[in-house]
Amino acid sequence: MKRSNAPRTGSAEIRGARPKIGLALAGGGPLGAIYEIGALCALDEALRGLALTRLAGYVGVSAGGFVAAGLANGMTPRELCAAFIENEADNADLFSPSLLMQPAWSEYFKRAASLPSLSAQAAYQYFVKRRSRMAAFERLGRALPAGLFSGRAMQQRLARIFSEPGRSDDFRQLQRKLVLVATDLDTGQAVPFGQPGLDDVPISLAVQASAALPGLYAPVEIGGRTLVDGALKKTLHASVLLDEGLDLLICLNPLVPFDATHAPRRKVLASNEERIPRLVDGGLPVVLSQTFRSLIHSRLELGMKGYAESHPATDIVLLEPDHRDAELFLASVFSWSQRRALAEHAYQRTRQMLRSQRTSLGETLARHGLSIDHTALDDESRRLLGKPRRGGPRTARALRKLEETLADLESALR
To answer: Staple 323 to which of 33, 178, 216, 259, CB 3.0 to 4.6 Å?
Structure first.
């Protein structure tokens, strides 16, 4: 957890006004949404005065857009958990994981139909124009689909969920500001749906566009523009809320690079095996995962520094997983089979993080009329899913509490 602790002359506490609090959610595939829902459930319980469905504004990118849209529509973190994680059969808001894995049949058929013409063009380039084989193969490459899966089924399900009484699939009818960011594939520019001039697009369609990860999901056509994942441009796009004059902005980022040199040796959820001592031993998938996370996070760090400089009157709190967290790193970004365990893990680790930084974080929150519910935070029997758990052996509990207290002291001194 990172935050700015400098006194703010523009804070609501000094002005005597109700604080304006915003929430910015980054992407990270289904795993990112699972982490954010678990973390938000922990925050909802532990922070007094923080109503996550009644904030001044929300901005979401990719998977974070789904969560942000739900919150802006009045769905509490627990309701999002019931729909997205628990998948109760009698839940009207049921969101089946299968909706995310629908093949992009229309894309396949369109590309297949173009294959005869492209083959003739490639042959002409090679035999008549005497171009290289590579040039001919590049021409044939246009027959490859622009995405393996379609987000259309997801969009249709979200449209039904957001059309329930008390909700809306229209940005203009929401009581709270909501911005969902996609990227224009042809220009590379950010497209912030929900902003003036871009608020006539259905929220569910904006979620689909913002989460259209290139190569995996087919691009989305809206208003003559070809749109893909909003994370291509920025990780958070928090400035769209900061420009509204917020007092406090809470940011959640689910993907961080893994620090294998300091990770504890223990069993992990993803594989039930000891952690990988060196990431290179994990092969190409692990190397690519670390590379992707490092690129995303380095861009986030630059963005956070820029936000602090451009909006010095706003307190910014960034929550993200521990860089030593092997469970979240080794879990597949598109894993659904372990979503309950991963959501519980995110919930418990967020509670642990809050305990470890309660002193310094409490000072930041107090400037905006918020406080930490220490009774709820210290109740180790609490669980996101299932029955309350036991605290474990007395010695282990004591050591864990000592570690959290020392971390809290270190954070306060820093």
So the answer is: 259
Q: Which residue has the tokens 């628990």?
A: 86
Question: What Rg, from alpha-carbon coordinates, does the chain have?
Answer: 23
CB atoms closer than 10 angstroms to residue 399: 11
Nearest to 345 by CA among 359, 330, 356: 330
Mind giving me the DSSP string for 82-119?
IIIII--TT-TT---GGGGGEE-HHHHHHHHHHHHHHH
Rounded Cα–Cα distance for residues 104 and 111 (Å):
11
Please list the residues that pair with 371 across neighbouring strands. Answer: 48
Token duo for residue 293: 């996370």
Signed CA dihedral, 292, 294, 297, 299: sign only = negative
- Bridge pairing between strands 47-48 and 371-372: antiparallel
Distances (CA, A) of 395 to 328, 355, 378, 389, 392: 26, 18, 16, 17, 8
Distances (CA, A) of 263 to 273, 288, 295, 373, 408: 14, 19, 20, 30, 20
* pLDDT tens series, the chain, 414 aa: 665 544 454 455 544 578 999 999 999 888 899 999 999 999 999 999 999 999 999 999 999 999 999 999 999 999 999 988 887 655 666 777 778 889 999 999 999 898 888 888 888 777 777 777 787 778 788 888 999 999 999 999 999 999 999 999 999 999 999 999 999 999 999 999 999 999 999 999 999 999 999 989 999 999 999 999 999 989 999 999 999 999 999 999 999 999 988 755 544 444 444 556 688 888 898 999 999 999 999 999 999 999 999 999 999 999 999 999 988 888 876 666 688 899 999 999 999 999 999 999 999 999 999 999 999 999 989 999 976 655 555 564 555 555 555 555 555 555
